[in-house]
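Hey, I was hoping to borrow your eyes for a little while. A protein chain has come my way and I'm curious about its shape. Take your time with it, there's no hurry, and the full record follows here:
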Amino acid sequence: MLPAVLKADFLELVHVDTAGHLKFNKCLEHIRSRAWWPRFRQDLKMFIQCCGKCAAYHRGKTPKQGRLHPMLLGAPAERWVVDLCGPYSQSQGYKYIFMAICPFSKYIITAPIRNKEASTVARVIFEQIILKWGLISEILSDLGPEFQAELSQELFQILGINKIQSTA
C-alpha cells in the first residue's frame, strides 16, 4: 500500500520515466505490478489528463480516413504520375521543377522548366516521357491548370493517353 505522500511522485515516476508518457492502460499495468491504493485508477486518469506533454500531443480522436485504392499496374512505364513544384528562386531562368514517377518501378524523372504554361508542360511530357519511354496508356495528375488546359488534353487525346485526375 502506497502512502498518500508518495502518490504524486510515484505517478510521475511511472508515467514519465517507466512508461514514457504512455496512455492509461499501459501505465495501469506498471502501477498494478508495483503498488496499490484506493482509487488509484482515478488518480492515474487525472494525472495523465493534467500531464502537459501528453496534452500537447493528444488531439482527440483521429479523423476517419477513406479507403485506399491500390494502383493495379501490369508493366513499367504503363502509368506516369506527374506534378510541378515551385516557384523557386530563379536559377539560369528556371523557376519550376517538373516531376514524373512510374508507380510500378518507382523510377523518377525530374526536369527544370521556366514557367507553368501548358505548352511547356506538354513539351516536357513529350520529350522526357514519351520519346524516352515510349507511348504510355495513362497519366495521373492533380487539378493544376497546366494539366487541365486544352493543349494538354489535345496532346493526350491524339496520343491515346487516358488522363486520370487525383481528388481535390
In short: Residues 4-57 form one domain.
